[in-house]
Amino acid sequence: MKLYYAPGACSLSPHIALLEADLPYELVKVDIRAKKLENGDDYLKVNPKGQVPALGLDNGEIVTEGPVIVQMIADKVPAKALAPARDSSERYKLLEWLNFLTSEVHKSFGPMFAPALNDDAKAFFKDRVMGKLKHIDSQLAGKDYLMGKQFSVADGYLFTMLTWADRMKFDLSAMPNLSAYKARVAARPKVQEALTKEGLAQAK
């Protein structure tokens, strides 16, 4: 498999999933702004959406959208328990988390990366994200991970966005559950391996 990624982007989530799953893969770096691969090829020919992540399967198919990719990875190695069994009530809870993270948290972070956005607009989106993170903090009470004791692909996704919060100097000190969670996920060897392979500083 080939993971098309940009360092520190949301493609970090499937990168973590691939490592946690112990699946063989090749990393292909993408210049998102130029829509080019490192060798100069047109990335739009791989993924016409022009976004990362994209996962190239061994049969030549391309799968896009992070929440779908991470589930596909998890389902390839059910023994790793990166996602609950399909059709189980717990699987729908995972889907609930993945949908919340992608539609409520991820999409509120996005505008803050836009250079053209003024400070007032960025402050609006920051407040929105902080509200979502406070909800997550409350849901993490008494839990090691989003699904309880078991690390899942949703945790790789949330952790990715918490690295963005770091870069944007968010103060999470009033969210002790989330802060402890972030440190717990960061301490996982496969998470550190993903950060190292993407040339990112270790999460605090």
Automatic annotation (TrEMBL):
GST N-terminal domain sequence ranges: 1-81
Molecular function, one GO term: transferase activity
The GST C-terminal domain covers: 87-204
UniProt cross-references to PROSITE patterns, sorted A to Z:
GST_CTER (PS50405), GST_NTER (PS50404)
Tell me the keywords, alphabetical order.
Transferase
The record's section on Pfam families has: GST_C_3, GST_N_2
The UniProt entry, under NCBIfam families, shows: PRK10542.1
Q: What is this protein called?
A: Glutathione S-transferase
Q: Which organism is it from?
A: Bradyrhizobium manausense
Lineage, please?
Bacteria, Pseudomonadati, Pseudomonadota, Alphaproteobacteria, Hyphomicrobiales
